[in-house]
Automatic annotation (TrEMBL):
One of its GO terms (molecular function) is DNA-binding transcription factor activity. One of its GO terms (cellular component) is nucleus. It is found in: Nucleus. InterPro entries: WRKY_dom, WRKY_dom_sf, WRKY_plant. Its main location: nucleus. This is Putative WRKY transcription factor 40. Pfam families: WRKY. It comes from Dendrobium catenatum. Keywords: DNA-binding, Nucleus, Transcription, Transcription regulation. Residues 148-214 form the WRKY domain.
Amino acid sequence: MGSNNGSSICLDLSIGTLQFSNSCMKQHNKINKLPLIHGSTKMEEQEIYSSQIEAEMLDEMNRVVAENRRLSKMLAAISERHRALRAQVLEMINSTSSSSSTKPAPKRRNCDGSLGYPQSVNASYKVNCAKEEVRETRPRISRMYIRSDGLVVRDGYHWRKYGQKVIRDNPYPRAYFRCSFAPVCPVKKKVQRCTEDHSVLVVTYEGEHNHVQPLPGDSLNCLR
DNA sequence: CGAGTTTGACCAGCGC
DNA sequence: GCGCTGGTCAAACTCG
Ligand SMILES: [Zn+2]
């Protein structure tokens, strides 16, 4: 979870071009090897038809090659931007962690301030979570998006509800759960409905279980 | 009767 | 300092 630190994006963008050109060439050879029988109108028709197909295939192939080239350029540009942003974020983390060594870190609202789809996660959240990875002292926080009608999340663990709160800008309340193995297990979770899509539950897990899953059969229909 | 849930009160951080 | 807000506590309540 969140451990995908790979800076290089590797995508195979050769969308069947080789295969396509090979089959095209085979067909081309086949057509060329056809015995020529002069005066045969049927053969002429076939030849015209074949050449039409050939021309269409070549057109298609050129189009796909051009598309492939365009996508490769786009990917290169995106990779370059990703690398630059990553470097920037790391620089920010280093500067803030060195400067905040004198200041005590705030006790609350570290990673839970914003709630929304993964695409709309803001920059400060990303920076905070990156900080989370850098210093291993704070409990691990992970967020999941689950499509569910009720507030029940089948994640294989037993939870005890210890609070519910109406949160600003959300008509649905947020529920607070502790692992039923507490205080031995320190894991907590928060469950609330997504403001954008009310059929989606936003589940935030805090910490890691130090015991086996009591209900391993329960699968998590996660949307990530 | 014990375990789990509900819900109002309380506490602490943060912005103004 | 004050009000707002999110997180937690704990008494009351429910359910098997
Ligand atoms: Zn646990």
